[in-house]
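Sample 3 of the quickstart, ligand flavin-adenine dinucleotide:
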Amino acid sequence: MNNSTHIDILGAGLAGSLLGLLLAQQDYRVKVYEKRSDPRMQMVGEGRSINLALSHRGWAALNQAGIADVVQEIAIPMRGRMIHSEKGGTLLQPYSIKDENIYSVSRSALNNILISQAEKKGAKFYFEHSCEEIQLEENSFVVKHASDTNTLRSDLLIGADGAFSALRSHLQRTARFNYSQYYIEHAYKELTIPPTAAGDFAMEPNALHIWPRGGFMLIALPNLDKSFTCTLFYPYEGAQSFANLQTPEHLQSFFKEYFPDALALMPKLAEEFFTNPTSDLITVSCFPWTYNGKQVLLGDAAHAIVPFYGQGMNAAFEDCRILTDMLVEQEEKIADIIYRFQQNRKPDADAIAELALQNFVEMRDLVTDKAFVERKKVEKELYRRFPDNWEPLYNMVTFSHRPYSEALQQGILQDSIMKEVMKKYENAEQLNNKDYESIIALLKQRQP
Ligand SMILES: Cc1cc2nc3c(=O)[nH]c(=O)nc-3n(C[C@H](O)[C@H](O)[C@H](O)COP(=O)(O)OP(=O)(O)OC[C@H]3O[C@@H](n4cnc5c(N)ncnc54)[C@H](O)[C@@H]3O)c2cc1C
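Result:
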């Protein structure tokens, strides 16, 4: 079946190019249409360097594609959160008691690897080809390239065309299609901490740096050129907002008050701040992801989420791995597989969307809260003593393949138990063996 099945993918972003690779490896005839120009043609140093946190689910898909070792070469391990206080002090909160890291990777370097590897396996890429129109009934689509337009027909059309998907906008016009989008009040802006004069990292490279400040935060991830890409998450409007940071003087005093240690490392702060865009953060939820089983949405096109769990790309890669497995392993008709894929995956997409919104509060606020820090210590100790029974929510999401929906449910149960437990103790040192055993007994009793 594979050799004669034509699969067309809209979008050569992270999901589209990985899916192109995975499917080409299975001998599907894959064509990928991307509205932008070929990113590999960009000159070195052109464009901003933007990075992402890659974790377990992403690596699983890259492993399946046989390119984990190539990506490893551009990945920088981050073993924990480095919390920066307002006075400039730092504290590392490791992500896991096991030897588990998340990894900082350059979005463009990763995308380029995925495209080149997919091409090597036979996927065909068409850049500067924008999908303009789709006829869902016959599964044909119109692609525009310069002044040419072509109508093409597909066996399976995949919408990996991001948060503002063309395929999704066509599905939106069909009966009983559910759709919602939600912008949080925060926007983000990317800034840079360059290497030191000696050409070294200006801060600890193996950490994700966070300056949590209650209603807002700054984060920084390391790059291979020894710079850091920082992201300021800050409200659009209001007393403390981007709207109120209009002059270099105001910007300087804002950073001096809240991020003094970062300010000292940002020689081009004002230039970058007033040049780089201020961008939105959106959650998109929709269903179904197909009209008649001949097309399907995945990645951000199906479930764009806010970036606070570092899972958007990881979830998109997991979509690609699961869909490929289903196509390869099952002897069903493609349409049946597509219906099962969306049924199976939608609860997980909803769960990670919710978790990502919740994690913003944890990152910008709770990480410095004493009670929260003590509770995390107790949870880590539970995990160390009873790894088969208690896994912290962050670990389930970041370092496991457990479906997101299960992780969310288990997290809710563990959260309710921890709230009860921590009413009795002020710090983790107060708990003894028996206390830990009784927490696990309680968990087993309440486990559905
Ligand atoms: C600030 C920020 C930080 C993030 N950090 C992380 C992180 O640390 N870890 C993580 O896992 N995720 C992170 N994410 C999320 C991650 O970026 C996305 O989930 C991921 O890019 C989704 O990949 P995608 O291929 O579905 O969409 P995209 O990467 O958006 O790719 C879609 C592609 O489709 C193309 N396209 C669009 N319309 C058309 C059309 N009509 N015709 C042809 N082509 C089209 C676009 O040009 C684009 O190339 C972050 C997101 C943001 C905004």
